[in-house]
Amino acid sequence: MAKHIALIHAGGTIGMAPTPNGLAPMPGFADLLDQALARCAAPLPRYTLLPLAQPIDSANATPQDWRTLAQEVSTRYQDYDGFVILHGTDTMAFSAAALSFMLQGLRKPVVLTGAQVPLSVPGNDALQNVIDALRAASAGICTEVAICFAGKLLRGNRSTKISASAFDAFDSPNHPPLARFADGELAWNAAALLPSMSVERFTLPEYGKATVLSLRFAPGLPLAALEALLACHPHALILDCYGSGNAPDRDPALQTILKQASDAGAVLLARTQCLHGKAATGAYAAGAALADAGVVSVADLGFEAAYAKMHHLFACGMSPAQVRQAIIEPLAGELSI
Ligand code: ASP
C-alpha cells in the first residue's frame, strides 16, 4: 500500500515571502506547495499537509516548541507511515536533537527539512528539499530523526548548520550521512543508521524549566564573564573548549570558580570547539584542571545536541548527579563512546 506521510509545517524560510520588513510567513503557502508538488515528475508518497497554528521563524523557537513538535508526531503516530517537518534552518538542528531524545525507539522516520530560499521565490532549494524529504520518509528504511537537505540525509542529533547562505547548509561532522541522493536515487548507508527498535519509548516531559547556558573560551576571556554566567545559577553550563577539551590553567581562579559551581549543583560540560573529533579533558594538563573541577567531557556531542539533551534530562526530573552520568550515555546515537 502507498505510504502516507504527515507533512507538518512548523515555519521557516521555506514558507515565507518577501515583505517590506524582510522575509515573513506567507499566506497561501499550503496551496503553493500542493501545486508545486503536483507538477513534480518524481514518484511521491501520499501526504497530508498539517500546518501548525502559527508557523514561526525558527529563531523564535523555544524548548516548548520542540515539545509541541514531538506532540504533533506522537499524537498522530499511528495514522501515518512517516513524518516530514518543514522547519526554519536556524534552529533546525536543536529541534531535531530534542525530537530524537523525546521520540526514542522510533520505528518510523521523522525527517526535518527547510530551505535557504523560499518556495515563493524562483530558483529556490525548497521544492527539491521537500521532494527529497518525502521520498526519504517513505522509503521504509530510516527509523530515526533526520535532517534532509541539499541531497543528504543526516542524523538529526549529529547535525549542525554550516552555511548561512549556501544550499548545502547542513553537515553532521562526526557521523556519516545516512543517505545521499545520487542521480535522483537514494543511496543508503546502512552502517550509519540506528537499528530499528522493537518498541517505542516516547518521553515528552514539560520542557523549558532548566536554565542551560554556554561559554566559548577565547584567548583573554575575562573570568568575570564566567562569573556573570554562573551568577544566573544555571542548571547546566556548556563550556566550548579548545581542541581536545582544553581551557587556560595558568590562573587557578578558573578552576576554583568552576569547582564551586559544580559542588553547588551546576552541571558543567566540556565539549570541543572543533567541528570534528572529541573532547577528552585530561589529554593535556590544561584540560585536566577542568576534570578536577568536576567538568564532564562529552566526547563528540555537538553543541545543539548537548543543549537539547541538557534540557531533556532536567525536564525528565534528573538530579545533577544523574545528569552528569546520563549526558555521556547515548540516547539516540548522538555521541560516540
Ligand atoms: N530565520 C529562518 C528560520 O530559521 C531561516 C531559515 O529558515 O532558513 O526560520
Q: Give the CA-based shape.
A: elongated
**Strand order in space, largest sheet:** 4-1-5-7-8-9-12-13
Strand content: 15-25%
Molecules bound to protein: aspartic acid
Number of DSSP strand runs: 18
Largest sheet: 8 strands, mixed
Helical coverage, percent range: 25-40%
**Global Rg:** 21 Å
**Counting H and I runs of at least 4 residues, what is the number of helices?**
9
What's the SSE pattern?
EEEHEHEHEEHEEEEEEEEHEHEHEHH
- What ranges have pLDDT less than 50 throughout 5 or more consecutive residues? none
Structural class: alpha/beta
Mean pLDDT: 95
Termini gap: 40 Å
Protein described:
The protein is an alpha/beta fold and 337 residues long. It has helices at residues 29-38, 63-76, 92-102, 126-137, 223-230, 252-263, 285-292, 303-315, 320-326; strands at 4-11, 16-19, 22-25, 46-56, 82-86, 103-104, 110-113, 145-149, 152-155, 160-161, 170-171, 179-182, 185-188, 201-202, 212-216, 236-241, 267-272, 296-297. Helix 2 packs across helix 3, helix 3 crosses helix 8 and helix 5 (223-230) runs parallel beside helix 6 (252-263). The chain is elongated and about 65 Å long. The mean pLDDT is 95. The chain binds aspartic acid.
